[in-house]
Amino acid sequence: MYVAALLLGFTGSLHCVGMCGPIASMIQGHAARNTIINRALYNLGRTTTYVFMGVIVGALGKIVQWGGIQGKVSIAVGVVILLILLLPKVQSIFLPGLSRFVLKLKGAFATHLTAKRPLSSWLTGVFNGFLPCGLVYGALAIALIQATPIESALVMFLFGLGTIPALLTVAFSWQAVRRMIPWSFQRIQTIMLIAVAVVMLWRGLSVEGLFGNNTPEVVCQP
């Protein structure tokens, strides 16, 4: 599952280009060298948030394992992802609350976005990491079914690591990269989330003994 998390971040980073590319390109420094450092710190900030989320989700996953309902939770997460993707009415339930949350987050990192200090760049990435993103939720779904919070944190670290190459590239050539991408960013996200949902359903059914010969102990392992 570690490889899956890294690939999710890397292949899904085309979506990150659309969502976070403009923000990444606004990170500047007092000199060219400082700009490179600040943009790297911005990506480190995002990854820091992802790791923090991984620890929280991993702790929740441990409780789920203790309750013996890991397979059912995995199936439920896969079904919810598909419902949100396929039924617009389900999306409308969450969008108003997410919009208010996004406005608060943007206000939180607005003062840091145009600053040229390393700490401001890192903080911008930290706040950016909390912005609603389907791919992040997909990675968290993978983190949820890991055996320990540390493994869940590692999943999110690898996911964040996978997104960095594309975002570093686009920060220096936003318009050029945007013209090279033939698909809409929304379509890229949808495809990746469908893949995550299928994995979650397959793992859940395996744990429940409804598909394959895996046992819960084996399925827990990455």
Gross morphology: elongated
- Count the beta strands: 0
**What's the end-to-end separation, in Å?**
5 Å
Question: Roughly what fraction of the amino acids lie in strands?
Answer: under 5%
Q: Averaging pLDDT over every residue, what do you get?
A: 77
Helix residue percentage:
over 70%
SSE series: HHHHHHHHHHH
Structural class: mainly alpha
Sheet with the most strands, sense and barrel status = none
**Low-pLDDT residue intervals, each spanning 5 or more residues:** 213-222
Number of helices, counting only DSSP H or I runs of 4 residues or more: 11
Total domain count: 1
Radius of gyration (Å): 18 Å
Give your account of this protein's structure.
This protein has one domain (2-220). It contains 11 helices and no strands. It has helices at 2-11, 13-26, 32-66, 70-86, 88-113, 118-128, 134-144, 149-172, 174-180, 185-207, 216-220. It starts with a helix and ends with a helix. The model is unreliable at 213-222 (pLDDT under 50).
Summary of the model, kept short:
It is built from 11 helices and no strands. It has 222 residues and is mainly alpha-helical.
Descriptive labels:
222 residues, mainly alpha, 11 helices, 82% helix, 0% strand, elongated
List the helices and strands and how they pair.
Elements (H helix, E strand, L loop, with lengths): L1 H10 L1 H14 L5 H35 L3 H17 L1 H26 L4 H11 L5 H11 L4 H24 L1 H7 L4 H23 L8 H5 L2
Helix pairs in contact: 1-8, 2-8, 2-10, 3-6, 3-7, 3-8, 4-5, 4-10, 5-6, 7-8, 7-10, 8-9
